[in-house]
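Box 3.1 — From sequence to structure: Dihydrodipicolinate synthase family protein
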Amino acid sequence: MQHAATSSSAAQHSSSAPFPAPLTGVVPPLCTPLTADGEVDAAGLRALAGRVTDAGASGLFVLGSSGEAAFLDDARRATVLRAAVEAADGRVPVLAGVIDMTPARVIAHAERAAEAGASALVATAPFYTRTHPVEIAEHFRRIRAAVPLPLFAYDIPVAVHTKLPASVVLELAEDGTLAGLKDSSGDDGALRRLLVALRGRGLLERFAVLTGSELAVDGALLAGVHGVVPGLGNVDPEGYVRLYALAREGRWTEAAAEQDRLAALFALTDVGPEALMGRNSSAIGAFKAALHLLGVIGCAATAPPQVPLDSEAVKAVRHLLEEAGLL
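Predicted structure (token representation):
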């Protein structure tokens, strides 16, 4: 009864858009703008959300990898959710990352997301401990039973050290536990085989498959994915919206040219010296530096212990933005 009441309350107060089945298009995983002292810059987040929505995004994904969810406490996560739902203002659905180690912890995040008015939830497999496919399936079933919002599985083995088995995805798609999949596995062959299996079972009409690979969107769309969740979409949402539209129109040569332009721009994720920082610090720092240079957010700070970009790296970001015609 408690979960039903939470869901009902969320439905009464939410300003989120109705959730489509399947979800299609461009769904940028929003960065989380921070102030210099590490607080969430809600105004900056609303500006970013408005920018990508105005560009034609089909939805907003908050509190994922690009949103630095792993570095934010519960209070900051709640601020992000409220700002995103407010910014969406019913125009597009808001997908809330509820990533954590165990079902109990994920469900607590999911309940708060529902109360804030999120349209859907995004969760990884459980992590830290080693889990069996039966346990992974049970993890998602518990989340879905506790908070009855559409639930997406986030396949990101680089972060959780588990590749979601295709058998589990098919099982949970078939029984309605999952509404979709965000594939950031980097395994294009496995994704293609999963699409074939989903199509063979008639599930692609209601189960959304979204690629998280910014560099191979045209190929993934040709293979049958429904859309893309591009971190680089924070910086150039219009480019990904154009790419999606060209692919949907079957204009593959033009789509490939747009993909090539975006691939060149993606070089900004490597501006941070490998000897001084991890690739996450480099990528998130570059996205935020670009947004700061573009005047979207007021501060390019990243959450500790990530290492900030130095002035030379920021100059490299500026140069790439100029080459891409964004500055």
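Summary of the box: The domain at 2-250 is CATH 3.20.20.70 (TIM Barrel).
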